[in-house]
Design goal:
Number of strands: 17
CATH superfamily of the largest domain: Type I PLP-dependent aspartate aminotransferase-like (Major domain)
Bound molecules: pyridoxal-5'-phosphate
Distance between the termini: 30 Å
Radius of gyration: 22 Å
Largest sheet: 7 strands, mixed
CATH topology of the largest domain: Aspartate Aminotransferase, domain 2
Number of helices: 14
CATH architecture of the largest domain: 3-Layer(aba) Sandwich
CATH class of the largest domain: Alpha Beta
Helix content: 25-40%
Structural class: alpha/beta
Number of domains: 2
Length: 423
């Protein structure tokens, strides 16, 4: 594949040649595409809801059949016994986020998990109570931080400190994050950032932010909704304290599908780490003795409260099979080219007035480009939609485009370019 952007050409033939050279091009056939005029839509919205893996139905059917056939015995007799269902995701998730198998578990949904992890890792004192987060975070994250501060008796205006872009800039500089941490370090309890910001597509330096938080005597947690399945991550090595993500965006596991958490081994195995407990977090060996006195497992599984939501997790397995097959390294490599080529094409457009606010440095972005329109952004978006392009509109004036390496092609983004050129 040509990875030198000076050799890129804005032609359908060139895009086709890139697809022909792409080792991952056949993975596209593993997914259902929404149809537009009896043809596959140009689906560039995997940052919002990933496409359905064709294998999802078979796995969901398996659970329905096992339920019909075995009833309660399905907990042990099912092809994937339900009592252990959560364990069937662990290895794949560990690979995806760069963790060991004791550090991850699939459970609940993202915001619920964020709150549960905050209950463990935001234990503010009169001295240390501040949370530093990115300005312009996803609203759920803002509400979570705000209400966590209130729950502990703090004024969120004082407890939640935001770092934003400088005037005239769109992304956040690491030196400004560093300065803010330095400024508040005496009162700092926690630094919570997105992995990839949902609006700008900026990928933060998770390793560096974690180091800075630790140096200030605070902990570091990350919301990886837009990073998991998008960027190569090394959460264990980076010494991240905790993280959570959803699986319906780049992980293609279906609307509202199960989320996942990472808790660094050093906290996961420490039975003194506080958590709200339920029976599924209890030591496996004595779980069914049904006795008083919570004994947590020594892994991230101890954050589980309930038994696994089998129906809500089945499609996740279908999707993770594909990630296991491809591997994040290969996906990231294709992603680099696909996003760079998309950027190259968008920069050829002289008929539309927009600015790409996503960093141009591939190390600081994943597979999303956010186009900030000066005017008429919504009209462009509507036009794209009418031509069978599924992208994403964010108020007040941003179109987000996500060329997803798992199933998007170079011809997809070339077609986008042609349509935009005709607007
Ligand atoms: C998508 C997203 C969410 C959504 O939260 P749910 O609890 O899954 O509804 C939260 N935070 C971020 C950063 C997101 O991108």
């Amino acid at each position: 594949m040509i990875n030198n952007s000076s050799a890129y050409k804005a032609s359908r033939q060139f895009a086709q040649e890139m697809d022909d050279a792409d080792q991952l091009s056949t993975f596209r056939n593993q997914f259902y595409f929404p149809q537009h005029n009896k043809r596959d839509a140009i689906y560039l919205c995997g940052n919002s809801l990933g496409l359905q893996p064709k294998a999802a139905r078979e796995i969901i059917d398996q659970e329905l059949n096992d339920w019909a056939e075995f009833g309660v015995e399905g907990h042990f007799q099912a092809k994937r016994p339900w009592f252990a269902y959560h364990t069937f995701f662990t290895e794949s998730l560990a690979k995806l986020v760069g963790a060991n198998v004791k550090e991850v578990v699939a459970m609940n949904t993202l915001t619920v998990n964020l709150h549960l992890l905050m209950l463990s890792f935001y234990r503010p004192t009169k001295q240390r109570y501040k949370i530093i987060m990115e300005a312009g975070a996803f609203p759920s994250d803002m509400y979570a931080m705000e209400t966590q501060a209130i729950m502990h008796g703090f004024d969120p205006e004082k407890a939640v400190i935001e770092v934003g872009p400088r005037k005239g800039e769109h992304t956040i500089r690491i030196e400004d994050i560093e300065e803010t941490i330095e400024k508040h370090k005496k009162n700092l309890a926690l630094v919570v950032f997105g992995g990839v910001n949902y609006y700008t597509g900026q990928f933060f330096d998770i390793k560096k932010i974690t180091e800075l938080a630790h140096k200030a005597g605070a902990l570091a947690g990350f919301d990886l909704a837009h990073a998991t399945g998008n960027k190569v991550l090394h959460l264990h090595e980076w010494n991240v304290d905790f993280a959570c993500w959803c699986s319906y965006k780049y992980l293609n596991s279906g609307p509202g599908a199960v989320g996942g958490i990472f808790v660094h081994e050093k906290h996961a195995k420490d039975s003194k780490t506080f958590k709200l407990a339920g029976w599924w977090g209890h030591d496996e060996k004595t779980r069914f003795k049904m006795k008083k006195g919570f004994k947590p497992m020594k892994t991230a599984e101890s954050w589980q409260m309930s038994n696994a939501q089998v129906m809500n997790m089945a499609a996740h397995r279908a999707s993770l099979d594909l990630f296991d097959k491809v591997g994040m390294d290969k996906l990231a490599e294709k992603s680099l080219h696909l996003t760079a080529y998309t950027e190259f094409l968008l920069k050829q457009l002289s008929n539309l007035k927009f600015e790409i606010i996503t960093p141009s440095n591939p190390l600081e972005r994943g597979c999303q480009l956010s186009l900030l329109f000066k005017a008429k952004g919504k009209e462009v978006f509507d036009k794209l939609q009418s031509k069978g392009v599924i992208a994403d509109w964010r108020e007040p004036n941003v179109i987000r485009i996500a060329p997803v390496p798992m199933y998007n092609s170079f011809v997809d983004v070339y077609t986008l370019y042609e349509i935009m050129k005709s607007v």
